[in-house]
Amino acid sequence: MRLYHSPTTPFGRKIMVLILETGLSVEVISVTGTPIAPGTLPVEHNPLGKIPALECDDGQVIYDSRVISRYLDDLTGAGLYPAKPALWQLLTLEAMVDGMLDAAVLMAYEVRIRPEDKRFDPWVEGQWAKIARSLDAIEAGRMAQLQTPLNMAQIGLGCALAYLDFRHGVRDWRKGRPRLATWEAGFAKRPSMQATQTPPQ
Q1: Dihedral sign, CA of 89, 73, 134, 116?
Q2: Are residue 112 and residue 179 in the same domain, yes or no?
Q3: Which domain holds residue 39?
Q4: 165-195 residue pLDDT tens
Q5: Total tally of structural domains belonging to the chain
Q6: How far apart are CA 82 and CA 193, in angstroms?
Q7: pLDDT per residue as tens digits for the range 48-62
Q8: Cα–Cα distance between 32 and 8 in angstroms, integer?
């Protein structure tokens, strides 16, 4: 199998953590690019030009990260998704985490790609509001889901919080969320998280 990935993408990092946690052997192909300059992004495998994308042993290519994670969990029998009815709440939390990441990436693109005279601050703040509401919802009502055996929502959240530190550290997501901050500090110590840390820019 081949995984098309960049060390700075939190979506790809989720899959890298999963690979390490399950002991899979996967060839990692490093790619770079943006929505306006695809560069080496695997557009021939994913017409959306997004990563991660996984080229399977049978030649099929699957994406996005949630599809890949379900595929690899099924392949390995890792049990990173619980049985019903708990599955629905885990998938909802996983979707919330991915929504936070979508918003955080869009915020980063606004600064890194859009010319300064064309930036729209209210739009950026609207993206952060999505993230803040989600963090508050987790702090207030979803911490119990973070105390269960390892699952993909936990992996996604750990990667999302690290990405907020990486790209939006000045926002200080930990403020007012002590339980989530404590959980993140412990989760970040997992060997799989340590091995996949985003390189300094």
Answers
A1: negative
A2: yes
A3: 2-76
A4: 999 999 999 999 999 999 999 999 999 999 9
A5: 2
A6: 22
A7: 999 999 999 999 999
A8: 9
